[in-house]
Amino acid sequence: MSEEPEWITTEEATALTGYSPHYVRRLVRQQRVTAQKWSHVWMIDKRALVEYQQQMEALGRTKFSPKRGTEAPEAEAEA
């Protein structure tokens, strides 16, 4: 049985992560985090947001690398 999401507002999400409100809304639009619109307010799944932030921190600067997910050229040269 899965846990019920803990919903937080965009404002709470920015305070929790340090992300800008614009960036949090972009994550929602791109469906990188689970969210629901309640009336005129976006509610974000706190667990999904924290998991996303942890994944991005683990990637560090490699998240910007066009070679991410491929073998390093040095490894291919040694083979």
Description:
- The chain has 79 residues and is of the alpha+beta class.
- It has one domain.
- 47% of the residues lie in helices and 15% in strands.
- It has helices at 10-17, 21-29, 46-59, 73-78; strands spanning 7-9, 35-38, 41-45.
- The protein has a three-stranded antiparallel beta sheet with strand order 1-3-2.
- A hairpin with a 2-residue loop joins strand 2 and strand 3.
- The longest helix has 14 residues, at 46-59.
- The protein is globular.
- The relative contact order is 0.16.
- The coarse overall form would be globular
- Rounded mean pLDDT score: 85
Quantity of strands, as a count: 3
Identify low-pLDDT runs.
none
Q: What kind of assembly state do the chains in view correspond to?
A: single chain
Radius of gyration: 17 Å
Strand content: 15-25%
Order of helices and strands: EHHEEHH
Tally of separate helices: 4
| Biggest beta sheet summary | 3 strands, antiparallel
Widest beta sheet: strand line-up? 1-3-2
Number of folding domains? Answer: 1
What brief labels describe this structure?
79 residues, 3 strands
How is the topology of this model organized?
Elements: E1 7-9, H1 10-17, H2 21-29, E2 35-38, E3 41-45, H3 46-59, H4 73-78
Task: Describe the structure in brief.
The protein has helices at residues 10-17, 21-29, 46-59, 73-78; strands at 7-9, 35-38, 41-45. It is an alpha+beta fold and 79 residues long. The longest helix has 14 residues, at 46-59.
